[in-house]
Amino acid sequence: MADDCLFCKIAGGEIPAKIVYRDDEVVAFEDINPQAPCHVLIVPYRHIPTLNDAEAGDDALLGRLVLRAARIAAERGHAADGYRTVFNCNRGAGQTVFHIHLHLLAGRNLNWPPG
Length: 115
Ligand code: AMP
Ligand code: ZN
Known about the structure:
Blueprint: H1 6-11, E1 19-22, E2 26-30, E3 38-44, H2 59-75, E4 83-86, E5 102-106
Antiparallel strand pairs: 1-2, 2-3, 3-5, 4-5
The chain binds adenosine monophosphate and zinc ion.
């Protein structure tokens, strides 16, 4: 856990969030400022600041985030219509919380390319 990290605090239960899934490595919760009818963040407990900081041994953990996003999308009925998963990496891509998180967005038409 990193000091003053919002997502470490949410994962640790120190700051409340609308948790939708939790296991021994990963927690998922509703985004506080949703950009689509379905906007969930899938987050590892371990503090990894950006995708640049992930290492070879993190491949299973990263895969777990992606598969969990797919499961949540399917559970919510978005598998067929489609959904988007996004890691924003660093400020130029819009990252504002420096603890990696996978965005799951669904429930509306998602334009491409994104802004
Ligand atoms: P990013 O801009 O990719 O770093 O995404 C950070 C996301 O965290 C944004 O979509 C925010 O709306 C979301 N967020 C910020 N604070 C909270 C919070 N307390 N609970 C849930 N989501 C949050
Ligand atoms: Zn953290």
